[in-house]
Structure formats: structure tokens, C-alpha cells
Amino acid sequence: MDQSVAIQETLGKEENCIVAAQCDILLDDCSESRLLGLVECAKEHIFIYTHRRMAITADDVSLEDIIPITLDFAVVEQLVVVADTRVRMSYKNEELELRLPFGSHSRLFLCEVNKAWSDDLVRSSSHTTSNKAQILAMPQFGLRDNLIRCELLKSEDSYTYLENFFFLGTYNVNGQTPKESLRPWLSCTPEPPDIYCLFQELDLSKEAFFFSDTPKELEWMKAVFEALHEEANYALQVKLIRLVGIMLIFYVKKEHAEFISDVEAETVGTGIMGRMGNKGAVAIRFRFHNSDICVVNSHLAAHVEEYERRNQDFKDICSRLQFRQLDPTQPPLTILKHSVVLWIGDLNYRISDLDVDKVKDLIAKNDFETLHSYDQLKRQIDVEAVFVGFKEGEIDFQPTYKYDTGSDKWDTSEKCRIPAWCDRILWKGKNIQQEHYKSHMDVRTSDHKPVSSLLIKRVNPDAYKKTFEEIVRNIDKMENECIPSLSLSKREFHFKDVKFMQHHAETLNLFNDGQVPCQFEFIQKPNESTYSKPWLTANPPKGFIAQGASMDVDLEVFVNRSMAPDLNCGKQEIEDILVLHLERGKDYFISVTGNYLPSCYGTSIYSLCHMKEPIQDMPKETLLELAEKSPNDDAATDEKPLDIPKELWMMVDHLFRNAVNQEDIFQQPGLRTEFAEIRDCLDSGMPDSLGSNHSVAEALLLFLDALPEPVIPFSFYQQCLECSSSAGQCIISMLPQFHKNVFNYLAAFLRELLKNSANNRLEVDILTIFASLLLRSTKKQDLAEKKKTQEFFQHFLTQH
After folding, report:
1. How far apart are CA 628 and CA 609, in angstroms?
2. pLDDT, mean over the chain
3. For position 578, which CATH number holds?
4. How many domains does the chain have?
5. What is the pLDDT of residues 589-641, one digit of tens each?
6. Are 416 and 356 in contact, with CB atoms under 8 Å apart?
7. pTM score, whole prediction
């Protein structure tokens, strides 16, 4: 959670908290928790606060000390000790030793402190040799390292050999507490593994859903640590827990800890609009010697028929889970950008097209090969729908789900679920070999069985050192006066029929045809703050290319809610020029054009109420004219406008007719493919059917989220927060007519859903997701404001 909001509330008007991070101040015989804030006023300062467990508002923090970042300030030492970072800072004659936990907040905080400190040094004329060395060692000056890493990757075969290495384990404990030893699972190898990466769903309680703390975390960590291979000593490198209980633990042999660096951890949820649900993934990334490794632990959508939703969860995790890099100028790293990816978890793919008796018969015969041919994950991998490029070992063990808890008996409950290999381990990368892949029937705490895989990959330190030194010598021999040069596969790109929230990509190939390695970067044009328009991204936006090598740059176009309004009415066009700059070389100019198909998504309520035809049939001139009018414009028109947008009516009408009794409505996400079909139907004409209920429900939420002016206009926001529940109806009566119609229409529909809560399992608290869509602020809401918006809207859901 970003705790800088709490700090910002304590500051004056001219002060700004750039970043905050939690830390421990290390004293002689103990450590004390503090909250650090890097605050910008005339110059940067480090504010030190005492705080409650999680700082949400100003009431949770108390200012203890302020350290100015001036010439008297210095970062004396910065060390990574296991996963944590220890920092010694000095100011005048005083020193402060801090321990910051792993994570993006800590890394960003240290990066910004180093930047502020180095900027102050650069502004000063009193540089010392020591100061210069420290500045040049910072990430922003380490450009040469990228070339060395590139060459090392190319020569990887010369310094790697196979040896016991990774123990991967996944175990969905189904919210249980430890009841038995985990040694049959974690100590099943003759030799101790070098690294352990393991775990799954440890807490399913409501408390775990709403709060990140759970007592079961400590219980299971203790059980795991006691079961590690007894012939080795292990250090806890990383632990993390996601809301609702998906956990990933990372242990490493102490003798290998010094070779592990750049440790980072992130999480992502895959519920409806990415805001709800108990499915998602946690991941860690780290560098081991020269390998960038990412370990992902995921829990995908349940139920036999939902394999497409599981496919979508996988794709969402791959695209949305991003690691912030140490160099803040570099783009975030996605999972698949790593040289090695290890994926574990309850993936929830089931057995299809066989009844339970046939499945159990094949298991009794140990005919796992035949049974595996009916496995949904295998089928989806075979058609390249998911896990493209990944490998999975041969499955020669019986399904890991579902058992009666505490036994080896298949599910005897009323549902009598078909056995399935829900718990899986896959990998992607070079020079990796699997030694075993099996389940562990002797562990019976859960209705799942744990699974383990031993993967092997190891660096030969002597060969690595020799290769490294040879690469450095070759780089040193290069002639600095050589001018870098690139050849580009294309200079003009045209994106046809760009649509709202639909990803489009073209590949630009860069070939280094010069005599030296080159560094490229897309740079800003004069008077522009970024290198491209907001709908365009170059991935990567900067990089190194070795001599004679090439690199693909993906030019990606994606229109979201912030960009759609101006594109819908023609104020903006899909048109931009990218400037590709070579360090010590010339600039290249790349033209990007396209045509955007107008959408009801991102179009105002006023405009939509004045369109009786689909938006894509409307003349551009009319769209622009409507967009420039005010919601309060009551000028007479030739035709009576609609009371509410027809697109809104179509979605609500579909849900009213088909989804009043739909279980988990507005809680389960829809399918991305179906959303695209719904959008196209709304934008181009009247459909007979929009799609599945969950997809229409999410499409409705996205429609409200994309409105340039929310249903309750921004100008009424503060009034709604300050009013009493009884005065709420008075404020709604003052809204522009079309906005008032929409609000009343939606509130009536949601009340109708609540009348059927016995069937659809809806609660008032769940429907407050609409509050954040109907009543939005132009600024970031704090927790208190979010609560007030929910209370305001909840009044309209409970009135009779």
C-alpha cells in the first residue's frame, strides 16, 4: 500500500511527498519500525515518522526527525543482505543505519534518495574522488553493464552445467492449518536442493480477504522451515503474501545467497475489473549469477467449464504483473521478459469429456497417458492458447484433486467432483532439465495433494569468470571514435481500425549494421513531455544492440478511457512521429498513423442521448458538435433525445431479463473476447444477444468507468460527500436531466437485483463497486473519501 498519502496529509501546501517506504532503524541492541518520506520543498528532505502498523491517514503518523539532503548528507553504504537492503546515511556528524524490506517501494525510495543526493553533488563544485566514484556506481551510469550482460547471455553455454538446483512445490492447503510434517514433500530428494520456491492458498477467510495479515502465514512458514532438507542450511530470501492468501516462499542455501541480487516481488488480482475476486498471482524475480529468473505462483479461475476464463487469467497475469526496475528510466519488466520463468500453482484446469467413473477407472489402471489426453491444460497448450514456449514434465502420478480431507479417498461429498490435475509446475528457459515431477500422497492435510518438481541448472564459477573477463577485454579494445549505425525494417506504420481497449501491435526490427555496439532510445520531441502520444508505446523504449545483432521493438497502440473521448469525436487522431535517437549517432524518424473507430465507451451521456443511430454511423462533424456541448444544454433539437443512452439500456435490459438470478453477478469477471463482441455490437448496431451474463455485467461497469463526465458530474462530488443520507435525493434532483435519468435507472435496477439476493448471492457491500464509478473525483481518492462515496450510494440501494 502507498503510505505517502498519510505523509502528504501532514505537509504544508508547498511540500510534496515524492515517495514513502517502511523501514527498521537499527539501534545497538534492537530495531524500531519507522516510516520514511522523501519530501520536496525548497530542497529534498527525509522525514522520519513513528507510525501505526499501516499508515492510511495523518492520524496514523507522527513526525520524529527531518534530515536535509544537502552537501552535509551522504549515503555512506548500501548493501543487500539476503532480501533486505541495509543503508547507512550520514548527516554532519551523525549516522543512521536503516533496514528496508524487499519491494518496489523500498527500491523506488532508495533510487529517489540517490537521485536527489547525486543531483545536489552535481550542482555543487566541490566534487571529491570518492563522491564521483559513488555517483558513477549508481544505476543511471551503468550503461556498459547491459552490453556485458548481453554478451554473457550469448555465451551461456560455455559456463553452465547441470546440477541439483531448484525445488519447486505447489500445495493448495485450502485454508487449513498445519496438522502434519511436510518432510515427505520437501525432503523427498536424496541431495539437498539449492533453492526452494513453493506454496499456494493458505487462508480463505473473510479476514484474509480484507486484511493482508493472517496468523496462518506464520504457522505454515514454520511448518515449511522445519521440513526443509536437513543436510543444508537455508536462508529466507523472500516471503510474500497476497490478499486472500496466495503465498510464495523462497529459500536459498546460505552459500548461494551472495550470488542472488535484484530481488523484487509483485502481485496481481484477476477478479472483475481487476478489483475483486480471490484469484490472481504473486511473483518474485531475481538475478542468479547472470540469469534473470521469475517465479510465479498463481491461482486461476475455478469450475470445469471455465477453461477460457483460466486462459484469460493467465494472459492477464502475464501482461499486468510488472516489476519496477532499479533504473527508473527503464520500463517495467513483465514476466515473459525474463530468461527463465518458473510457474507453479493451482491452475484449476480439469478433465473434460469423461464422467467420474471413467476417470477413476483409468486412474485405477495407472493409465495416466490416456487420462492426460483429456486434460484441459494439455489441450490448451497444444492449440497454443496458453503457456506458449513453456514445458511441463511427463505426468505419471494420479490427479491431485479432489480428496476427502485427511485421507486418500476421492471426494465423497454430494458434488462428487471429478479428479483432476489442478496443481501444476511448468517452466521456460534455456539449459534447464527436470529431474522429477510427482505428487506426494503421504500429505493429507488438504483436499489437494502437494506436487514437486526438481529442475537443475548451475553456473560454473571459474568458466563464468573467464568468460566475463574476456568480454570486458573485447569491449575495452573497441574504438570509441566509431559511429554507431542502425538499419530499420520500416519507417512508416499504419494501424487499421483501432478500437477501444483493443491491443494492436506492429514490430519494428532494429539491426546494428555498424562497427560498434549501440545504445538507442526514443526521445521527446521539442515542447512535448513524453516520447509518444499516450495511446502509443514502444517496448522497449531504450536498449543496447551488440554489433551485428538485431532487436525487435513492439509498437503498441492501446486506447483507454482517458484517451477515448478526444478520439471518439475527432479532436485527436491516431497520428504521431517517433524519434529514435542513437547515442553518439544520428536520429531516425518513424511515422505512426491509423484510423480510430468511434465507440460509446468514452462518449458522454449527453452525446449518446442525442444519437438514435449507432455511433459508428454518425458523421464526424456531428460527434464533434455534440462533444463540445454542455450536459446542461437544453437547446431545442429537431428530434426528441433519448432519456438514457440506448447502449446503457441494452446492457441493463439484457441483465434484467437474463441475470437477475445469476450467481456471483458483478463478482466474477467476463471474457475479454466477449467484451470485444459486446463493444462492437453496441457501436455498430442492435444485436439479438450481447453475450454471457458475466461479460455483459463487466461491460456495463467498463462503460460507466469510461464516461468522460461521471453519472454524478464532478461539480457535485464535494456536495455528495458532505451531505447527509436524507439530503442525497435532493442533490440527485439537481443533476443535468440525462445524468439524473441514468442514476435513477441504475439505482432501480440494482435494487431489483438485491431483491433476488437469495439466488444471486449479492449483498449491498458488493454493489458499492458502482459508487466509485458513478461518483468519481478528478483527484486520487483517499480511504476516507472512498468510504463516504460508498455510504452516499448505499442509501439509494436500501431505500424502498
Report:
1. 14
2. 84
3. 2.60.40.10
4. 4
5. 999 999 999 999 999 999 999 999 999 999 999 999 999 887 776 654 567 89
6. yes
7. 0.65
